[in-house]
Design brief:
This protein is α+β, with helices and mostly antiparallel strands and about 280 residues long. The chain has 12 helices and 8 strands. The strands form 3 sheets. A 4-stranded mixed sheet has the order 6-7-5-8. It has a two-stranded antiparallel ribbon with strand order 1-2.
């Protein structure tokens, strides 16, 4: 191992466990992180962040506590799993400031779905040239996202009917859910918080509407993602494809002429999967 690689390994070890700072003493979520796993993650970080891996690691090592270190390791492992099946990780790089912001904020996240969004965003930040900082926009959106909002975005992005026009821009047809369905999706029964979260997502441009509405005496929540929300979702899946390609959409000649009411989806009840995420 080169001197630079050794330094990066030591920095990464301090990120994971500043007390022991040794491979044999690494404790990750109650189990030992194998030496090969630690070495592999450090090598991965070095590849995508080179030549700034030392600086990134030093900054994080000075600030990150043990819980955040475990989260950062889990985030990197997920990113690695997204990139390496296609052999992409060896040839792709991400701008250091993008990688730093993702690790800085993503390492706070214990909840799997939201942390996986950060992992996907890091994966989609990697390019052959290593100078594409377009995901900085999405880091700002993800930075303030709650785990509840992540569930709403995931549901709307995956369940909505999406259409693409001749220019390649994608839009979603309206999606509404009943209050009981929204409570199943989010795992939250507090209607005041649900209302706030929906309003916030609308204000930040992720949902086309926010809050609740009434239809025939029934309280409904509109969870239709905007074009920005759909793009955020795609990037957070580790994809650099256009939303049209990601969802394998067929182009429509005149999107504005389509009767969206015909594609309006409404959910009164959601079948929650064993994972707890009904998507």
């Amino acid at each position: 191992m080169s001197g630079a690689s050794s330094r990066r390994m030591a920095i990464f070890l301090r990120m994971i466990d500043p007390v022991t700072a040794s491979i044999g003493g690494l404790t990750v979520v109650g189990s030992k992180l194998a030496p090969t796993a630690a070495k592999g993650l450090m090598s991965f970080l070095g590849r995508i962040c080179n030549p700034a891996a030392d600086e990134l690691g030093a900054l994080l090592a000075d600030k990150v506590a043990s819980v955040r270190q475990r989260n950062a390791a889990a985030l990197l492992e997920k990113t690695q799993s997204i990139l390496e099946p296609d052999g992409a990780a060896t040839a792709l790089h991400t701008p250091p400031r993008v990688a730093y912001k993702i690790l800085e904020h993503g390492s706070w996240i214990d909840e799997d779905l939201l942390r996986d969004l950060w992992s996907g965003l890091l994966a989609s930040s990697c390019t052959a040239s290593g100078d594409d900082d377009s995901n900085m926009l999405f880091t700002s959106l993800l930075e303030d996202m709650t785990s509840l909002q992540a569930k709403i975005l995931a549901f709307g992005s995956q369940r909505s009917v999406k259409l693409v026009d001749e220019s390649g821009l994608v839009g979603a047809c309206p999606v509404s859910v009943s209050l009981p369905a929204l409570q199943e999706i989010t795992g939250c029964v507090d209607i005041q918080r649900l209302d706030r979260e929906l309003d916030c997502m609308r204000e930040r441009g992720l949902l086309s509407e926010g809050g609740f509405t009434f239809s025939h005496g029934t309280k409904l929540a509109i969870v239709t993602p905007t074009a920005l929300g759909i793009q955020l979702w795609c990037r957070c899946q580790g994809s650099r494809s256009t939303p049209a390609d990601f969802f394998t959409l067929t182009h429509v000649s005149h999107l504005s002429g389509i009767e969206v009411d015909d594609n309006w989806l409404h959910f009164d009840h959601i079948n929650v999967e064993p994972t707890g995420y009904p998507f």
